[in-house]
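Report of the visiting student (M.T.), summer placement. My assignment was to run the structure pipeline on a short list of targets and document each run. The first record concerns Pseudouridine synthase.
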Amino acid sequence: MERLQKVIAQSGVASRRKAEELIRQGQVEVNDKIVTEMGVKVAKGDKIAVSGVPITQEENVYFMLYKPRGVISAVSDDKGRKVVTDFLPGVSERIYPVGRLDYDTTGLLLLTNDGDFANALTHPKHEVDKTYIAKVKGVPFPHDLKPLTKGVKIDGWKTAPAQYRIISTDNEKKTAIVELIIHEGRNHQVKKMLEAVGFPVTKLKRELYGNLDLVGLKPGQYRALSRKEISSLMELTK
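After the run finished, the structure tokens were exported:
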């Protein structure tokens, strides 16, 4: 069972907020009866019409994409740049990315048409870990990165404590590879955190989302999540 306004929004007829307005205005029918109250839930077999026009309910779908560099984490772009949904041409459902990765960041990105699933994973209070691998300018020592474990101030707010690991260093090129695990997802957060402690990022990849990894995928490839993987991710939000 799904909330009526969510089903309307997923059908593409209107946003969830607009769907709620249409329900209050008596423009929505469920099984030939006008519905004006919020909180009504509908099943897959129920007949729904908005302003007299029947809508089709989509099945919830869940995908993992290995996002390449130079791609927007969106379903459209007014500048004509590639977007993540361009890499899932065989998917007919109205999917969208769960959170985002920067234009020049690669790695694991989830896409779905299930709003509750997306909201659960992206809400900071649920603390779902995301693991990033960053190439940085400079060669850090452990004490240089230790402030990350207590949180650092960026853009006037303090980040939640993070975990880090120095994977490798190149003293000749003055670069290093650093792993950073965070559960927040603010704009450019990993880049800003590492820059705040003196190590600007030159390359960034998200390797893990919760317990999901990119094994078996190349940049630009995607696959559906299994029921076990979906359940496992939802468990992490409880």
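The helical segments are 4-11, 16-24, 115-122, 142-145, 189-196, 227-236. The first helix runs from residue 4 to 11. I thank the supervising group for their guidance throughout the placement.
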